[in-house]
Amino acid sequence: MAKLRDDRRIRRSRKGDFELRIPEPEREVLRQLPDQLLEIHGSDDPVLERLFPAAYPEDAEHEREFRDMTHDDLRRQREDALEVMKRTIDAERLSEEELLAWLSAINDARLVLGLRLDVTEELDASRIADEDPRAPMFGMYAYLTWLEEQAVGALSASL
Fold first, then answer.
1. Three-state SS letters, the chain
2. Closest CA to 81 of 67, 60, 98, 96
3. Which of 56, 78, 53, 74 shows the shortest CA–CA distance to 65?
4. For the CA atoms of 17, 23, 25, 30, what is the dihedral angle to 10 degrees?
5. Domain residue ranges in the chain
6. Given Cys at both, which of 15, 16, 85, 154 links 10, Cβ 3.0 to 4.6 Å?
7. How far is the C-alpha of 80 from the C-alpha of 104, rounded, in Å?
8. How far is residue 18's CA from residue 92's CA, in Å, rounded to a whole number?
9. Using one digit for the tens of pLDDT, what is the confidence trace for 58-95?
10. Residues in contact with 114: Cβ distance below 8 Å, sequence separation at least 6, in sequence order
């Protein structure tokens, strides 16, 4: 019987941690994400509205109170996750806490790309021509989606 090829990039080990089987070319691309996202955090980029959506869009006073109470903590949590990814990008194994940080960072990158590409439920990315100048960004979006699925699958493997 032929052995099935296992191309998972992230999987739970028998020790309970998570094995990263990400080839170097993919790590090189991922290595850039934390700094790019941290740069966005330090700007007035409109994409921040997607990363930190309004809790009370119809009530300016409640929204201000909510942001005053939570925004700094939420921003710090996101930035901490990016720092964890940055620090562990070359690791072969991650703890559950580290993988959750990666998941947060990957999701934020997908949100940013999705907004920049105007991704909707109706979008069929397979119809994007290779010549389209956005094709590399769509490829990155698809890769991050797949990697996010890998992380979620690994985290849920023991449930």
1. CCCCCCCCCEEECCCCCEEECCCHHHHHHHHHHHHHHHHHHCCCCCCHHHHCCCCCCCCHHHHHHHHHHHHHHHHHHHHHHHHHHHHHCCCCEECHHHHHHHHHHHHHHHHHHHHHHCCCCCCCHHHCCCCCCCHHHHHHHHHHHHHHHHHHHHHHCCC
2. 98
3. 56
4. -20
5. 31-153
6. 154
7. 10
8. 8
9. 999 999 999 999 999 999 999 999 999 999 999 999 99
10. 141
Whole-model pTM: value is 0.89
Here the tokens at position 100 are 């959750």
What would the two tokens of residue 147 be?
A: 């990697």
Backbone angles phi, psi at 19, to 5 degrees: -85, 130
Tell me the pLDDT tens digit for each residue of 15-29. Answer: 999 999 999 999 999
Q: Which residue has the tokens 């997607």?
A: 50
Whether residue 75 contacts residue 104, with contact meaning beta carbons closer than 8 Å, is answered with: no
N-to-C CA span, the chain: 29
CA distance 108 to 76: 14
**Alpha carbons 85 and 31: distance in angstroms, whole number:** 8
